[in-house]
């Protein structure tokens, strides 16, 4: 069963993503900060990461770079609010493989996970 790390400081968004992915057979690990995401990645070695960009303590861009130091082949999709295109472009250059816009569409999330793990 593929393992997905869902990272978002908003509990509601984590719960929504976790419920969706669990219903499709994924094992889900949650993190609420960028620093927690990096530690969870080290501990769990997930197959994919859904990583929010805007978070306290360490934003998604910093977390992306830290995770890529641990694993240059990490499968990461960024989760972004509308209007963050420049940050998304920077994230893609830094190694993110896809992105999902909030509020997210279930099919789009599943497609992003499938794409980055392919």
Set out the fold topology.
Blueprint: E1 3-7, H1 11-23, E2 27-31, H2 34-44, E3 48-52, H3 60-70, E4 76-80, H4 85-93, E5 98-101, H5 106-117
Parallel strand pairs: 1-2, 1-3, 3-4, 4-5
Short descriptors:
47% helix; Rossmann fold; alpha/beta; five-stranded parallel beta sheet; 118 residues; globular
Structure described in brief:
With 118 residues, the protein is of the alpha/beta class. It has helices at 11-23, 34-44, 60-70, 85-93, 106-117, and strands at 3-7, 27-31, 48-52, 76-80, 98-101. It has 5 helices and 5 strands.
Describe the structure.
This protein has five helices and five strands, in the order E-H-E-H-E-H-E-H-E-H. By secondary structure, it is an alpha/beta fold. It has a single domain, classed as 3-Layer(aba) Sandwich (Rossmann fold), CATH 3.40.50. Strands 2-1-3-4-5 form a five-stranded parallel beta sheet, with helices on both faces. Helix 2 runs parallel beside helix 3. The chain is globular and about 30 Å long. The relative contact order is 0.18.
């Amino acid at each position: 069963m593929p393992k997905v790390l869902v990272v978002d400081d908003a509990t509601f968004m984590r719960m929504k993503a976790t419920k969706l992915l669990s219903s499709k057979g994924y094992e889900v690990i949650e993190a609420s900060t960028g620093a927690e995401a990096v530690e969870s990645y080290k501990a769990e070695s997930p197959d994919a990461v859904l990583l929010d960009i805007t978070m306290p303590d360490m934003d998604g861009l910093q977390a992306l770079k830290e995770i890529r130091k641990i694993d240059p082949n990490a499968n990461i999709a960024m989760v972004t609010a509308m209007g963050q295109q420049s940050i998304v472009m920077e994230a893609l250059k830094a190694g993110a493989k896809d992105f999902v816009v909030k509020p997210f569409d279930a099919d789009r999330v599943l497609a992003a996970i499938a794409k980055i793990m392919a």
